[in-house]
Amino acid sequence: MADQQHGTRPQYNRVLLKLSGEAFAPADAESGINTDATALVARQLAEVVDLGVQTAVVVGGGNIWRGRQAPGIERNRADYMGMLATVMNALALQDALEKIHVTTRVQTAISMSQLAEPFTPLRARRHLEKGRVVIFAAGLGVPFFSTDTCAAQRALEIGAEALLKGTKVDGVYTADPHLDASATRFDAIEYVEVLKEGYQASHQHAKDVVEYAMDECETKSLEEVEELQQLVSVLETQLKELATEVGRASKDLVDQNGEKLKTELEEAKEAAVKAVAGLDKMKQELAQRSFMAD
User: Fold this and answer.
1) Please, are residues 139 and 83 in contact by the beta-carbon 8 Å criterion?
2) CB 292, CB 214: distance < 8 Å
3) pLDDT tens for residues 46-70?
4) Distance of alpha carbon 152 from alpha carbon 203, whole angstroms
5) What does the alpha-carbon distance between residue 11 and residue 32 come to, in Å, rounded to a whole number?
6) Which of 44, 52, 76, 136 is most deeply buried (CB count within 10 A of its CB)?
C-alpha cells in the first residue's frame, strides 16, 4: 500500500477485505471475541482508510460457530446459526472502529433492522464514497455458501478493485500448514494456477465467482481472441512473402544500382523479419489469453 506522507497514491481506490472469524479470537484460542484482537483489526483498518482507500469488509464467524462441525444439527439450520455468528463479529468490529472515530455501517444479508442496514449495493457504494467502512455480515443470506463466496460476490457488486483475504495463515500454501507439515508457501502465484492445481486458498464457490469476474473484466472473449489470432496469421503470411520478395529483388538489382540499393533492401528485409518476430510474440500472448478465456 502506498504511503500518503511521501505523496504517492494507493495502488487501489476501493478494496474488499475478507476476515476470518479467528481474527477476532484471543491469541491463545480459536474461539470467542477478544477486545484487544478486535481493536487491533480496527486500528489497521483505520490506517488504510486514512490513506484514502475505500474499504469494505466481509467477516466470517468461525470463532463462534462452524455449521459443518455440527453434524447433529440440520445443515440449513446450522448455516443460519453461522450467519448469526458473523453478525456478532460485525457488530464487535463496528464498535471498535467507532471508538477510534471511523464511521462505519453494517449491512446484513438477513433483515435485522434494529441492528444494521439490509444489504443494498448502491447504498454500500455511497457509504464507501463518503469514506465510511462498510461491514457485510450474515454471508449471502442462504445456506451452503461460505463467507469466502460472499466476499467474492460482494466485491463484484460494489466494484472493488481488489479482493483481499486475512486469515490465520500468512499466504497461500500447497496445503493447510496447520494440518500438513510438508505444506510449502508460495511467494507469488497466478490465479489460474490455483484453479489448475486445486489449492484450497478459498472455497470452490468463491473461486467460481472470481473466475467469472476474471472472464468478464480481465480477458477478451474466446471469439475475440480467435479473430485476433486469424488477423495475426494473415499479417504474418504477408510479411513473410514481403521478406522473400525483398531478398529476390536485392539479388536482381544490386548489379544495376550498386551497393547503396543493396544496403537499403537488406535493411527493409531485416525490418520485415523483425515484424514477423513481433507477430510471433503476439501469437504466443493471444494463445495464453485464449487459454484463460477457456
Assistant:
1) yes
2) yes
3) 999 999 999 999 999 999 998 777 8
4) 10
5) 34
6) 136
User: CA dist 256 to 145, 243, 259, 262, 264, Å?
Assistant: 79, 21, 9, 10, 14
Q: For 66-93, what is each residue's pLDDT tens digit? A: 877 788 899 889 999 999 999 999 999 9
Per DSSP, the chain holds a count of helices (H) and strands (E) of 7, 6
User: Residue 256 corresponds to which cell in the numbers above?
Assistant: 544495376
Cα separation, 34 vs 57, whole angstroms: 18
Q: What is the pTM of this model?
A: 0.64
| Residue 273, all three cell numbers | 523479419
Q: Is 10 exposed, middle or buried (0-12, 13-18, 19+ CB in 10 A)?
A: middle
Residues 122 and 68 sit within 8 Å (Cβ to Cβ): no
**What's the grid cell of residue 45?**
483498518
Burial of 87 (0-12, 13-18, 19+ CB in 10 A): buried
Q: Give the whole-angstrom CA distance, residue 132 versus residue 117.
A: 14
Sign of the CA dihedral running 262, 267, 269, 270: positive
User: How would you label 104-139 residue by residue, b for 16+ Cβ within 10 Å and e otherwise?
Assistant: bbbbbbbebeeebbebeeeebbebbeeebbbbbbbb
Residue 107 to residues 15, 80, 283, Cα–Cα distance (Å): 16, 16, 47
Hey, what's the cell of 58? 466481509
CATH 3.40.1160.10 fits 4-168, yes or no: yes
The answer, yes or no, to whether residue 194 has pLDDT greater than 70, is: no
Q: Where are the domains of the chain?
A: 4-168, 221-294
Report how far apart the first and last C-alpha atoms of the chain are (Å, whole number).
Answer: 32
Q: Rounded CA gap, 233 and 172, in Å?
A: 39
